[in-house]
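TICKET: design request
STATUS: open
ATTACHED STRUCTURE:
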């Protein structure tokens, strides 16, 4: 959003979808921590400050890790003299952090369905002799994002054969990955077909079970462990140095304006 001079202007009416589009366009598919100078330049250009301050950010080696540490004093030290421009850029940085965090948390790591082996080590199909959904019910759906594990179950309203026509009740059990304490994997063999692998994900909410095709067990376990480690890091992250944009409060803004007024008075 820009004014006639090309400088960025904070538009309080800008909707969330437009803000998300700006961040997505600038990011080149990267999370904020992985942004380099090029992504910062893209972002500055999209919010209307590229031509005016792009070189300032480049000369001071501002990347995705550094941009979240900018505060009013550091922004002024970089050469952003205008109070209005500093307020606008820092407000955009706060938006940038919020949007990027939301996108990272919701990014899908794994999605799949419950594997349901048949009786007699897969010699017969699952649910034999009533092998259709009205009798067997629907398989659970597993979704793992960077922050959460969800198990979506569609349970028959009445647990009797041929009672699926009465409808299903959908339940969603969700576990925060930062709360996961342990992940166990067990697998077996089968006479025919693919044997099952069972993941047991332990947390303070109790165990969660995922039944998968055997050859997917290790892969999914590794993905969940990696996502869990990153979720723990994100949950406990403390940024040292300058205050992050989401810590810029009214007091710091007022202080910045008072300093600017004093400097103008001396001049």
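STATUS: resolved
RESOLUTION: sequence designed for all positions
ATTACHED SEQUENCE:
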């Amino acid at each position: 959003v820009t004014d006639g001079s090309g400088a960025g202007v904070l538009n309080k009416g800008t909707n969330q979808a437009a803000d998300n589009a700006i961040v997505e366009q600038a990011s080149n598919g990267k999370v904020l921590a992985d942004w380099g100078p090029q992504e910062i330049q893209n972002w500055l250009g999209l919010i209307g400050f590229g031509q005016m301050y792009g070189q300032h950010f480049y000369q001071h080696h501002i990347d995705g890790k550094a941009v979240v540490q900018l505060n009013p004093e550091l922004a002024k030290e970089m050469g952003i003299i205008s109070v209005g421009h500093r307020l606008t850029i820092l407000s955009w940085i706060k938006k940038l952090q919020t949007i990027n965090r939301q996108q990272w948390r919701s990014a899908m790591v794994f999605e799949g369905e419950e594997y349901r082996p048949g009786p007699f080590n897969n010699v017969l199909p699952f649910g034999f002799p009533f092998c259709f959904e009205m009798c067997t019910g629907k398989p659970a759906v597993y979704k793992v994002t960077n922050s959460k594990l969800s198990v979506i179950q569609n349970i028959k309203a009445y647990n009797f054969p041929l009672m699926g026509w009465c409808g299903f009740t959908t339940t969603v059990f969700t576990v925060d990955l930062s709360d996961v304490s342990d992940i166990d994997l067990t697998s077996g063999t089968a006479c025919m077909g693919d044997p099952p692998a069972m993941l047991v994900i332990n947390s303070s909410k109790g165990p969660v079970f995922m039944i998968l095709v055997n050859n997917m067990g290790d892969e999914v376990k590794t993905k969940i462990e990696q996502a869990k480690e990153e979720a723990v890091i994100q949950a406990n992250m403390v940024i040292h140095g300058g205050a992050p944009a989401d810590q810029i409060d009214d007091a710091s803004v007022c202080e910045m304006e008072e300093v600017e007024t004093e400097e103008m008075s001396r001049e």
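CLOSING REMARK: The domain at 16-106+241-266 is CATH 1.10.150.50 (DNA polymerase; domain 1). The longest strand covers residues 148-156.
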